[in-house]
Amino acid sequence: MIEVSNLVKKYGNHTAVDHLSFQIEKGKIYGFLGPNGAGKSTTMNMITGYIASTEGKVMIDGHDILEEPEAAKKCIGYLPEMPPLYFDMTVLEYMKFAADLKKIPRNQKDKQIKEVMDMVKITDMKDRLIKNLSKGYRQRVGLAQAILGYPEVIILDEPTGGLDPKQIIEIRDLIKGLKQKHTVILSSHILSEVRAVCDYVLIISHGKLVASDTPDNLERLAAGSNSLLMKIKGEKDTIRKALETIEGVTGVEMSYDSDEKLWKTKLSIQENVDIREKVFYAMAKANCPIYEMQVKRVSLEDVFLELTEGEKKSAGKPESSQWKPVEDRSSEEEKTQEEKNGEPEKASDEKEGDQS
Amino acid sequence: MTAIFKRELKSYLTSMVGYLFIFFVLVLTGIYFSAYQLSGGYSKFETTLSALTFVFLIGVPILSMRVLAEERKQKTDQLLLTAPVSVWDIVFGKYLALVAVFAIPVVIMCVYPLIMSKFGTISYDSAYTGILGFFLLGCANLAIGVFMSALTESQVIAAVLTFVFLFAFYMMNGISSFFSQTSMSTAVAFGLLIVAIAIIIYTMIKNVLISVVIGAVGEIALVIVYVVKSSIFQGGIQKVLNVFNLSGHYDNFTNGVFDVTGIVYFISVIAICLFLTMQSIQKRRWN
Ligand SMILES: Nc1ncnc2c1ncn2[C@@H]1O[C@H](COP(=O)(O)OP(=O)(O)OP(=O)(O)O)[C@@H](O)[C@H]1O
Ligand SMILES: [Mg+2]
Question: Which residues on chain A are in Cβ contact (under 8 Å) with B74?
């Protein structure tokens, strides 16, 4: 459907998008994930033909966006970061204008406009001037414009930006519904949103693609194994020895918390093994009381933070932009995990927020 | 294109700007008409028309300043440039809307010669030739305004730029008479121009060597031509400046001459300005 190969965008000396390549298949929802300034909007602007790429190619349904712009643009509906609305028009006038721009045949025009306006629930607002609409409704009008004409690909740059929680849920459901007939690409900083809506995630950092997979796979790959966070009282060596003998433990990391006089311990464990009981008895036998124990599953957020931070550390180093197998990057992973281990409570809080 | 044309026209006719422009042109026409024709008793509507050229200096910047600058500022150009329409459709649709707004007072003007015919005999031919010239001059000025509006996202800057250029073109007769006609002065002026071009090239490509070489080659060629045949430089500055002399070409029309080269000239100015507008929009996408 969409094929992006070696896309580069340079603004002067600054490289906003750096050799990005990926493919978008029909009937799925794709999520662009990345911190501020990662190059998400720039990439979307290039895919939709708003700006030209410095290097590389974007093919949409077999049409090069720069060489056959009109054919390519016909397949795309786009909601930019800032909805492109004319404040001096009413909602209905704007929709009619958008329909004309998209060359929707006259006999379908009114019907389609009505359908789309019902879909995003702006029918009540149809005679209001856009300048008098609230932010949420402006976003909806922008979304309606993107859906109009039922293009094969709908590209949405932060579709839920600036909306209240209720509207966010509504818009998400709407986007999920689009999947039946359209391919959707959306960008977001909100991980729970990507988790809930997208079939496939592309994580972008500093203009590079650092990972692309389904949310589940990303979590699994990044986790490699799950881990157990504990606070234990006792001698370091005793604890370590006792833990290492437990079956299923693949790694032990320890750091001393001098406030509580406890050892913060992180156990890496094989997937799908519950060893909490074994740990309890092992520690009891070694006379080392456990003060706290917590199972930690790696969330998409961890993957995101790790990948985007890891990118910063290795900035400048040429690197394959594909997801690397766990073995290759275990050292880097451990390093970041160790850092995070310094504040296990915070990390788990964030994870819970993510799930709810 | 029709979608953009319709939207644009509607937005001019539902906001102040369009009416302000129409009102302004008509009021000034009325004032000159009553001064020359009604009180003065001149039998030629062209006298009014030739006095009217300065309405464009104020009217055109007001009308054209927002045409592209505002789109860029509000980011609505993202809607247009990602829709399946070409840049030419966008530019031409918008330009036609401006022309349509301007056509309203021009059509009303066409009534004046009819009124005058009630009071005596007048030459319809020369009166309507004059109106045609007035329309063409206005269209050329609007095209310049569109180009200026494409260069910036600030309406104010667009208006000021348009005014400056239109004013310079308006004064072109006076400006060109400042320069002496001798071949020596023309050669010096061209020499300076080549230096300026070399500097502009330097700012674009940031390469001293290439810029200096281009400048030097240009100057040497100039000197050779001057030494071999200096007479071709005679009045050269005036010839060059005359290209920008819009009102000079307009004068033929108000003298009742149906000037085909004038028509070609104005259409060329419009085509060049719209072409440059497209180029500046394209260039921004590539920058
Ligand atoms: N017109 C421009 N001129 C210069 N630099 C630009 C321009 N547009 C974007 N950039 C730079 O390109 C980089 C990527 O910007 P982009 O807007 O694509 O980020 P983003 O991923 O969409 O971020 P956000 O999440 O904040 O929307 C940024 O560093 C930005 O400063
Ligand atoms: Mg963005």
Answer: 84-87
